[in-house]
Write a structure and sequence with these properties.
The protein has 254 residues and is mainly β. It has a domain of 174 residues. It has two helices and ten strands. The strands form two sheets. Strands 6-2-3-9-5-7 form a six-stranded antiparallel beta sheet, with helices on one face. Strand 2 and strand 3 form a beta hairpin.
Length: 254
């Protein structure tokens, strides 16, 4: 009978071991992005338009509120585009002689322009009203000029006064500007009072205007936006590993 072989006793032993593994993490990064945005922008546009009188006349015998030498200029803005802000600019030029000048502006829309005497008495009669204030007088009144004065004064009574400036003692080397608000008037009369000769009544008239315009403006803007970015990283961890060893190699129990 064969002898039995000795059986070697083994035990399971666990010990720590480092192992490498890969994991996915998410990190935040900023990236540039470009966007189009539209927003309203309000701006002011303005301009200046030269005006030419369609009714010019003068008379040395007439007095406007007591001051002699009347120079009358009628301007029509009918048919012109209306604007939010409108002003009449009177640019006075250098006079040849040192004289006192006054300027007045009227809105003649209610009754129309004053035509040169005595034309108004036949072409533009307005005799039904009573004159309450004599704007214009004449040293050489006749039956014809009397009718004209009555009609002209009625027109001024119903006209709107847009402004004026007196005591303009002129003998300047450069032009002198005076601005008046039109207040929506489309038929305007400019009166110069005082100049005795045409050279001393030289001026120009222009319409100053401005409007507020709102426009949509599109622009491209850059901004920084956060993004989540996936990254694969290498890590280490400690695991327990089990091996079979002979009992005499096993570590002592504690």
């Amino acid at each position: 009978m064969a002898a039995a072989l000795p059986v070697l006793a083994c035990v399971a032993v666990q010990y720590p071991q480092n192992e490498t593994y890969y994991d996915t993490v998410y990190v935040t990064e900023n990236r540039s992005e470009f966007l189009s945005e539209t927003y309203p922008v309000t701006r002011t546009i303005s301009g200046q338009q030269q005006l030419m009188p369609y009714i010019p006349w003068s008379s040395p015998t007439l007095r406007f509120k007591g001051t002699p030498f009347v120079w009358y200029y009628g301007y029509r803005l009918l048919g012109m585009q209306t604007h939010e802000v409108e002003k009449i600019r009177i640019s006075l030029y250098k006079q040849d002689y040192y004289e006192n000048v006054a300027v007045s502006l009227f809105d003649m829309g209610p009754r129309g322009q004053v035509l040169q005497p005595p034309t108004i008495s036949t072409l533009d009669p307005v005799y039904t009203d009573t004159v309450q204030w004599n704007w214009l007088t004449s040293s050489g009144d006749t039956s014809t000029i009397g009718k004209w004065l009555n009609s002209a004064n009625i027109k001024f009574n119903f006209a709107r006064f847009l402004g004026g400036q007196a005591d303009l003692w002129m003998n300047r080397g450069s032009s002198y500007d005076i601005d008046f608000d039109t207040r929506g008037a489309r038929d305007i009369a400019v009166l110069f009072i005082g100049p005795t000769i045409p050279q001393n009544a030289r001026f120009s008239a222009s319409l100053l205007w401005s409007d507020q315009v709102t426009e949509n403006v599109t622009r491209t803007v850059e901004r920084q936006a956060p993004y989540q970015v996936e990254q694969r990283v290498q890590k280490e961890r400690t695991v327990s590993k089990t091996v079979q060893v002979p009992f005499w190699q096993a570590p002592p129990f504690k």
